[in-house]
Amino acid sequence: MTLRRSLALAGTYAVLLLAAACTLAPFAFSVLTALTSARQFAQQGPLSLPDPATFENFWSLLSSRDGFLTPVVVTVQMVLVILAGQMVLSVLAAYAFAFLRFPGRDLLFWVYVATLMVPQVVVVVPLYLMLSEAGLRNTFWALVLPFVLGSPYAIFLLRESFRSLPSELMDAMRIDGAGTRRLLWNLVVPLNRPVLVTLLLITIVTHWNSFMWPLVITSGPAWRTITVATSALQSQYNSNWTLVMAGTTLAMLPLVVLMVAFQRQITSSIGQAQMR
């Protein structure tokens, strides 16, 4: 039994290592190609290791006349505005749906959450027409307005997390004279910090990687996001894959840093959800 269990465990780890290698291989290939000079890439092929490693592709991309730095700045601004709006408004809406009583509360909540079932491509045309009629096409507000007022997924996640809090804690604070604002910011938010951090990361990743909406609602380089700029590199530098991979690496680097920095909070939120 011990030998059989050891073989099963070894097989499990072998499968997991293979899956990890298949997942990480494209990212490793992107980084290695970005660190390879264009001459070495042309002479030795895409699978050769950088010899020596160079950051020339990154400097060339960031200092190019077309400018890859502008899309980075635009994307950071867009993500920060959407993040601030979604986190604040989603917390307030989730608290209202979880604890406040008003007519039609549950019906309104489930109708709102049901919009998660609607594919994004279905609402792209109506949103485009609405913002175009309002004169906001190819502006910064066109990038953020459809998403800044909250997210059905965020509200659903936070509502379920808020409702799992022990009612005794809420009652004790109410007896002490705590009002809605104090209950929310002094009790509910601190006890749900891991879930909030996870939601923060999900929001950043989702809108950092957003491609379809920025591609449709903007034109030209003024409000181009990093995903659209990276896609444009493939046609602009179709014979220089080292520059294309440098752009891809720059696009994914901030997300990798965030996930590494907040991995403990993500693990804590998963454990907290399992305990509840």
Which descriptors apply to this entry?
MetI-like fold; 276 residues; single chain; mainly alpha
What does this structure look like?
The protein is an all-alpha fold and 276 residues long. It has a single domain, classed as MetI-like (MetI-like fold, Orthogonal Bundle), CATH 1.10.3720. The chain is 76% helix and 0% strand. It has helices at 2-34, 38-44, 56-62, 69-99, 105-114, 120-133, 140-148, 152-163, 167-175, 180-191, 193-208, 212-217, 226-236, 241-261, 263-275.
CATH-assigned fold name: MetI-like fold
Task: Quote the beta fraction.
Answer: under 5%
The count of domains is 1
Question: Measured on Cα atoms, how large is the radius of gyration?
Answer: 24 Å
Estimate the global geometry from the Cα principal axes.
Answer: globular
Integer average pLDDT = 86
Please render the helix and strand layout as text.
Blueprint: H1 2-34, H2 38-44, H3 56-62, H4 69-99, H5 105-114, H6 120-133, H7 140-148, H8 152-163, H9 167-175, H10 180-191, H11 193-208, H12 212-217, H13 226-236, H14 241-261, H15 263-275
Organism: Brachybacterium hainanense
Keywords: Cell membrane, Membrane, Transmembrane, Transmembrane helix, Transport
Protein name: Carbohydrate ABC transporter permease
